Amino acid sequence: MLSTLRRIVQEVGAARDLQAALDVIVRSVRMTMCTEVCSVYLYDEDTSRYTLMASEGLNRKAVGRVTLSRSEGLVGQVGLREEPINLEDAASHPKFRYLKETGEERFRSFLGVPIIHQRNLLGVLVVQQNAKRRFDESEESFLVTMSAQLAGVIAHAEATGSLHFPESVHERPRQSRFVGVAGSPGIAIGSAVVLAPPADLSAVPDKDTDDIEGENQAFFDALISVREQMKSTADKLADQVPAEEQALFDVYLRMLDDNALGAEIAAVINKGQWAQGALKQVIEEHVRHFELMEDPYLRERAVDIRDLGRRVLSVLQQHQQDEVVWPEQAIVISEELTPGMLGEIPRDKLAGLVSVQGSGNSHVAILARAMGVPTIMGAVDLPWERMNSRELIVDGNLGRVYVSPSPELLTQYRNLVHEEKAFVEGLESLKDVPCITPDNYRLPLWVNTGLMTDTVRSLGQGAEGVGLYRTEVPFMIRERFPSEKEQEEIYREQLRIFHPRPVTIRTLDIGGDKSLSYFPIKEENPFLGWRGIRVTLDHPEIFLVQVRAMLKASVGLDNLRIMLPMISGVPEVEESLYLIHRAYHEVLAEGLEIQLPPVGVMIEVPAAVYQVADFARRVDFLSIGSNDLTQYILAVDRNNPRVADLYHSFHPAVLHALQKVVKDAHEEGKPVSICGEMAGDPAAAVLLMAMGFDVLSMNATNLPRVKWALRNMPLEQAKELLAEVMNMDNPRVIRSAVELALRHRGLDKVLGNRADLN
C-alpha cells in the first residue's frame, strides 16, 4: 500500500493543474481500492455549497454541474462532522440524498472522508460500491491518507488562484490572497510590475573555444560594465539609504573583483570554455553551495550571487532589456528581489515590494525598512510571473498580498490608508507633549531602533529615549566583525543624536533567525539553541570589544544603558557583569573619563520570569522582549504560518507572566520596561500601563498612536479593565473586551491599523 501511495503522490505532483490532479486521484483510488466509484466534491465557502469536481464511476456529465448545500446528503454530513462516514447501505441512512443525474442509485456501500487543510474544510473524498458491505479499517485509513495528500494540492490551488478562472475576458478576475512574511510594515495599493531576471544562466550551453584571449577580454569588459552599473545604483540610492546600508553595494563590488569570482571564471575560460559557459559553471556552483546551507541568512546569499551572474551574462549577450513602463503606484514583484533591482526602480513610483523568495532578514528587507516601503517576502505560493499589471494590495503589517481585490476590499483598505494618513497627521501636535493620562499619570514612551532612518523618524515622533538599539544590524551588513573603532563610531552617533535622552544598547543578539554570513550557526532548532548572550559569553573577545566600544562612545554624553539579551539564569548575569566591569576598567586605564552605565537584562524566556527578583538584585533595570517571551511561553514559532493563529500576545499565560515580572521587579525597587510589539499596540499598551510598566518602547511609527490612546484613557479605568480581563481564559475574548473598552471611550481610530480584512 505504501508503494501505491507513493506512486499516486508522484503522479499528482506531476499533474499540470488541479483538475488533472483530481482526475489522477479518483482514477487511482478507484483502481487501488477495487471500487466502482471514486469522487471528489469541493466545498466553496463563498456559496456554502459542494460541487462534484471529479469522478470515476458516476455520470461524467454530472461533473461540474451537480452541487449540494453544506448540510445536504451524506457528503454534507461528512463535512459537518469532519470525520469519515462508513456505511454498508447508504440508501437506508436518513441523510441519504438521491441525485438522479449522477446515476448513483445502484451503489450501496459508501465511505466518505473530509478533505481538511489547516482546520479549513476543502471538500469530501468518496468511494462507493454496488455490493452491500462496510469498508474495512485499512481501506478507510488509505482514503484518509489520500485526503490528506489531496488537501495540500487543493490548498495550493486556492492560494495560487488556479482553482477558479474567469469564464470570459470581460469577467473580473477572482480575488486571491497570498500569505508571506512581513518584511517592512505599511500598506500599499497599486499595479504590479514584474521584474524578471535579465538573463537565463541555466540556458547557456557549454562551448569550447580556441580564442581564449578574446573570451577573457569579453568577460573582463563585462565585469567592468557591471561594476559601473553597481556604482551607479549605489549613487542613485545615496540620498535614500543610510551609509551602513550603502555598504551592501561594496560587498557586491568586492564579489565582482578580478581576484574573486572573476579569477575563478577566468580559470575556466583558460581551460577552453567560452566566457558565458564559464560564467554559468562558476555561478551555479556557488549558488548550489549556498542553497544547500541550513543557515537561512547564508542561503540568502545565493540570491545575490545569482543576480550578479545574470547581470554579467546580460552584458556578455548584449541583451537589451525591454523598457519598463512604471505606473504611478508600482508594486514590484519578482521571484528573487535583490538590492541591485531596488536601485533600478524610480523611487517616486515605488509603492510596495513583493518577493517570492527571501525572508525578513534578507538584505532587501533591511533596505525596504530603511526606505519605508511596505514589503512582503517569502510569498511562495504567489504565481509571480502572471502578476504583471494586476491590481494589488500589499499589507506589510499582516504579511498579506491581495490580487485583483474586490471593490469592497479596495474601499476598506483605501479608507484605512486615508484614515491612517489623516490620523497620523493630526497626531503631529502631540510630538512635544508628554504622555499623561486624563488622571495625571505620566508614562514615558521610548523607541526601538536599529537603522539610522529609525533614529531620524524617532526624533520626529517625540521619543523620550531608546528602549532598544539592535546592534546586530551593523554586524549583519558586513563581511566581518566590525572593529572596536567602527562600533564606537556607530554607537556614538546614536548616543549623540538622542542626548541627553537615555539610549539602551543591546549587546549582540544573533542566533535563531538572525545570523552572520561570516559567523554561521548551524542548528536543527536554532530558537532553542546557541543565541543571544549564550554566543557572546562563549566568545568574550566579541563581547569585550563591543562593550568597550559602547563605553568609549559614551564619553562626555553619559546617556548609555547596556542591555543583555536571552538571559535564562543568574550565572549568565554574573559573568556578563564581570566582563562589563573588566571592559570598564580597561577603558579607564586608557585615560578616558567615563561612568559605569546602568546595566539591565531582557526577560524573554519563561525561566527568566521566575528569576526576576534574583536578577533585580544584580542589575539596574529589566526589560521584557514580548515577541520572544510570547513565542516561548506558547511554544509557537511566530514566523511559521501554520501556527500563526496560535501566537497571541493577549493569551492569559502571557498576561499573567507580564504582571508577575512587573510585580517582582518593583518589589526589589527596580524599573521594568517592555520593548516588544505589544508596546506599540494601543490596545495592549492600555493593559501594560495598568500593570505598572515604567516605560513602553516601540517602533517610532506607532508611538504617536499609543500616546494619543493613553492620553485619553485614565489609569484608573485601565486598571479596572485589566482586572476584568485577567479573569478571562480566551485571548480573542480578551482582545475583544479591550477593544470594546477603547471604542466606548471614542478611541476607535487607534484600532484601525489592526483590522483583519479578509
Relative helix content: 40-55%
Largest beta sheet: strand ordering = 7-14-13-9-10-11-12-8
CATH architecture of the largest domain: Alpha-Beta Barrel
Shape: globular
Mean pLDDT: 84
What does this structure look like?
The protein has 758 residues and is an alpha/beta fold. It has four domains: 2-160, GAF domain (Beta-Lactamase); 176-195 and 324-420, 3-Layer(bba) Sandwich (Glucose Oxidase, domain 1); 201-316, PtsI, HPr-binding domain (Enzyme I, Chain A, domain 2); 439-751, Alpha-Beta Barrel (TIM Barrel), CATH 3.20.20.60. Helices cover 43% and strands 15% of the residues. It has an eight-stranded mixed β-sheet with strand order 7-14-13-9-10-11-12-8. The protein has an eight-stranded parallel barrel with strand order 15-16-17-18-19-20-21-22, surrounded by six helices. Strands 3-2-1-6-5-4 form a six-stranded antiparallel β-sheet. The radius of gyration is 30 Å and the shape is globular. Mean pLDDT is 84; it is low at 164-171 and 753-758.
